[in-house]
Amino acid sequence: MKRWRRARQHDMAQVIDWIDSPRQLEYWAGPGLSWPLEQRRLWREIDGAWLRSRALSGDGHLLAFGQISLRAHRRCHLARILVAPGHRGQGLGEELCRHLIHEARDRLQAQRITLNVFHDNHAARRLYHRLGFIESGTLDERGIQPMILLTDEMP
Ligand SMILES: CC(C)(COP(=O)(O)OP(=O)(O)OC[C@H]1O[C@@H](n2cnc3c(N)ncnc32)[C@H](O)[C@@H]1OP(=O)(O)O)[C@@H](O)C(=O)NCCC(=O)NCCS
């Protein structure tokens, strides 16, 4: 059975198993994180305890992970969206993002929800477009594309 819960530091043990290279780490979490990965350091570097870190688990295993940060008045930012490699392409990424979007909109009253994605991360961009995110601003020199969702315009 699947359930949502707060993510904890020990979830990083599973996350670390899913990330095979510094490039994958960057795709998932953005630039600047330490490699090789270590559970406590990773949790600290992604501000695990300070941001709203959410986990979807199934039968005791982590299936998906993501974070919300409150960035400004009525603006939230989604970060570190991740689905277990063996469970991708089955809609879990969409379920994860919808969960985070609803929390941002309904609990934090977010009108604007932003995220950053590498422009060549095609699976992630397809997912965000499907959810209604649109490109906002231009690519930076690292190839990162900011995107935005206006919750007033959600169906
Ligand atoms: C991005 C990610 C969260 C998507 O999770 P998911 O569970 O596969 O998502 P969904 O099944 O809901 O949808 C994925 C979409 O990408 C497509 N897709 C999956 N793998 C793909 C690939 N390798 N290339 C292109 N499209 C791909 C799926 O077909 C689907 O597209 P659709 O809209 O046509 O149905 C997952 O691939 C992941 O964890 N990636 C690594 C971490 C990462 O890059 N996070 C994003 C940070 S911004």
Automatic annotation (TrEMBL):
SUPFAM superfamilies: Acyl-CoA N-acyltransferases (Nat). Keywords: Acyltransferase, Transferase. GO terms for molecular function: acyltransferase activity, transferring groups other than amino-acyl groups. Residues 2-155 form the N-acetyltransferase domain. InterPro entries: Acyl_CoA_acyltransferase (IPR016181), Bact_Acetyltransf (IPR050832), GNAT_dom (IPR000182). PANTHER family: AMINOALKYLPHOSPHONATE N-ACETYLTRANSFERASE-RELATED (PTHR43877:SF2), AMINOALKYLPHOSPHONATE N-ACETYLTRANSFERASE-RELATED-RELATED (PTHR43877). This is Acetyltransferase (GNAT) family protein.
